[in-house]
Amino acid sequence: MTEAFERLKALLEQQGALREEQVIEVERELGALTAEERLWLSIEQHNRLQRAGQTITVEQYIQATAILEKATPGSPEYQEAERIVAAFENAA
């Protein structure tokens, strides 16, 4: 397991979802994920969303992206919008 995988796995546990930008940032910093690691993260995130019974609509995604543009980074509103965007992008 690479250091990048371990960091992303911890972020997934902490946040419940990962955004593609987070994956790219961690890979730039710590090196690329293996194909198996990338697949594991994708499957795990998908399974979490299914267990939660969560389906993100296009409308919710658009609203969340608008919130990300206006809200203060780190605020609860911003974090929830980030979660919705990550869930939508990773489900696609």
Largest sheet: none
Cα distance, first to last residue? Answer: 26 Å
Runs in which pLDDT lies below 50 for 5 or more consecutive residues are none
Spell the H/E element sequence: HHHHH
Q: Any idea how many domains?
A: 1
Please state the structural category: mainly alpha
Radius of gyration based on Cα positions: 13 Å
**Helicity range:** over 70%
Beta-strand residue percentage: under 5%
With helices defined by DSSP (H or I, 4 residues minimum), what is the helix count?
Answer: 5
- The tally of strands reads 0
* Average of pLDDT: 85
Global morphology: globular
Plain-language structure description:
This protein is mostly helical and 92 residues long. It has one domain (3-91). The chain is 76% helix and 0% strand. The protein contains five helices and no strands. It has helices at residues 3-15, 20-30, 35-51, 58-70, 76-91.
